[in-house]
């Protein structure tokens, strides 16, 4: 089987290797330009592609043409040397990928199913529209304040009505008018995007299932489904938490050190989970997940508590989805109690170890004093 790599950019760089040597290299403007090289009538090839949005379409097309596409995770690509020494060159990158593929150094990355790809794209559309509205609202408030006028806090959906009711004066209204005029069209686009998202979610039973957890609405549930895609591809909750970048960075060179979270993976899902965690922490109803988070909040502060609850919430959602069960506070409570018990056991073990080390140090000190006394006796 042939070994090929494609670097996808403004143009597509093609590189084919055999027995460690480059045998074909070219650049084409579009996917159609690859027909003479990778079309349906060409010999079968394994083709490495670095993960990106465009890669989904090319991955599907290469399979349709009878080839074996291999999606390369972006973090894996960096480890292979792509972009090192400030040499981000498409031809070099394609050759690096092709050589790594031939040597068996590339484990294939997961490719989202077709429906989950649509779900993620629709979430991206909604995200941009919501962020645009938030930016308009922020700038309108700032412009009003710059002229000594303050707009009262309110839900973003009620902001336009508050602006119309506020006493701002002709100068301020003239200043903010262009942005206020854009809000209705943005809100209409958001409503349309959410209807499309709702239609996609109706075909996903897991979305309704995940919404039974506290703090989880349709957008958070849809984002989890769109990113995780298949819960069975993760062995445990820690793996999925690491995949989304919610686990602490670790340095085990010498003494083991834990830092802030890695922030690898999908940043939008991570942000949504942190928002959901704040909802859990502010929930007025009793819930074991909230109580667990409140314990961390009292020890380590609000920020650490929100991230910890987001991580724990993701693990709970993964388990619910994998087992096809709704949220059960009793199960979460038992797991929390077991975690507290493990922490208590760990604390007892540390105390016992410290006490043992202290006794050992005392014995060593007594031995040193004995040796010194004997040495002084001999000297005298």
Summarize this structure as a short list of keywords or feature phrases.
14 helices, 380 residues, 3 domains, alpha/beta, single chain, Nucleotidyltransferase, domain 5, globular
Shape: globular
Poorly predicted residue ranges: 340-347
Strand content: 5-15%
How many structural domains does the protein architecture include?
3
Q: What strand line-up does the widest sheet have?
A: 3-2-1-4-5
How many E strands?
7
Q: What is the residue-averaged pLDDT?
A: 86
Order of helices and strands: EEEHEHEHHHHHHHHEEHHHH
The separation of the N and C termini measures: 88 Å
Helix content: 55-70%
Structural class: alpha/beta
Task: Summarize, please.
The chain has 3 domains: 2-102, YqgF/RNase H-like domain (Nucleotidyltransferase, domain 5, 2-Layer Sandwich), CATH 3.30.420; 114-203; 206-327, no CATH class.
Task: Describe this protein's structure.
By secondary structure, the protein is of the alpha/beta class. The protein folds into three domains: 2-102, YqgF/RNase H-like domain (Nucleotidyltransferase, domain 5), CATH 3.30.420; 114-203; 206-327, no CATH class. 61% of the residues lie in helices and 11% in strands. The strands form two sheets. The protein has a five-stranded mixed sheet with strand order 3-2-1-4-5, sandwiched between helices. The protein has a two-stranded antiparallel sheet with strand order 6-7. A hairpin with a 5-residue loop joins strand 6 (248-251) and strand 7 (257-261). Helix 12 (288-300) packs antiparallel against helix 13 (302-323). It is globular and about 70 Å long.
